[in-house]
Amino acid sequence: MIIAILKEPAFESRVSLLPDEVAALLKRKVTVWVEPGAGSGAFCTDDDYVKQGALLRSAAEIFAEADLLLAINHPALTPGLKNKVLAGVYQPLYHPGLMAGWAVAGHTVFSLDMLPRTTRAQSMDVLSSQANIAGYKAVLLAAAQYPRYFPMLMTAAGSIAPAKVLILGAGVAGLQAVATSRRLGAVVEVFDTRPAVKEEVMSLGARFVEVEGTADVSQAGGYAVEQSEEFARKQKACIAASIARADIVITTAQIFGKKAPVLVTAEMIGTMRAGSVIIDLAVSTGGNTELSKDNEHVVHGGVTIIGDSNLAASLPFDASKLYGKNVMNFLKLIIDDTGALNLNFGDDLVKGACMLHDGAITNERLNALQA
Ligand code: NAD
Asked: Which of 87, 166, 215, 297 registers the highest number of CB atoms within 10 A of its CB?
């Protein structure tokens, strides 16, 4: 089997696999092809890949002959291309039309963002490896934009109070944002609808603000669920009080497969002092504030609202390294010892990540969207 690493679109600096992983792949008795320039955004040259045993091939050669295509973002497949296997992060529930087209072309598609969030899946959980980076980078971005210090300082020239950071959503990105803010010396408050995260938040030295009446998440596979209107009203009132005293707000609240909840209104933003910064990490699914725009800095009453749905890509080497490890661990499930594709749909991880196979949509939620 030939596995090809495609060059990502111009906006993407990450790559599916770094050169270091090529040798491990070759041991699985597959051939590895790389599109020239694939690793350049992550500071890896074509030569780095060749030294590890990969062969350079053009996109046209790859599309004609490779079996499995590794591409983080949707690759621009040439019309008429048929029966490829693709692995990446395709947000299929937000792109049902594209998936339907790929199904007609007979492609088999694994979208790693759809893996179940189980213990066994942790080593291939691309959402976690990338969200961790986004949470870290969100805090650095906020600190760089903020016109004041993060830590408390007592100097001969006077004292500086620590920055107050408010974090909405304590999943992987949110918890990393708490840890990074704390390391920089900020005082941190956190909201989440899952009471299970309270202890983790407190162990990182932040305050967890509880709102009563959160919906039961026991059947949601660890994910958050949509909340009642009454809860949303109570939560908004609590958030409004916290926001009025916050200097930095980092929002990460998402609901799997749905639009992100709007937790911060323009009116709330109006109560923040000028120079404050909001980073919205949920912007790719609609955003947690009324004013966020993806890849834009919006300024409202002196408060800067930064929407960036691909912050992980701003650390392209480590993001690619961790992503590549996730991919390698997943490939072990679908490639046998002879280097052939061997799909066991009895494995919940293979089934969970598989969106399309043999011209059919195999994921129930994606199928329901086609109706
Ligand atoms: P996410 O990106 O889906 O959401 C971020 C956070 O926002 C979550 O903590 C969620 O509870 C919170 N949220 C949603 N609606 C909210 C609202 N209205 N107000 C406040 N907060 C709100 O989360 P994630 O980081 O992808 O993690 C999702 C779940 O998966 C968590 O339970 C996490 O522990 C679990 N997880 C499991 C694995 C694994 O075992 N493979 C790996 C990582 C995460």
From this structure: 166
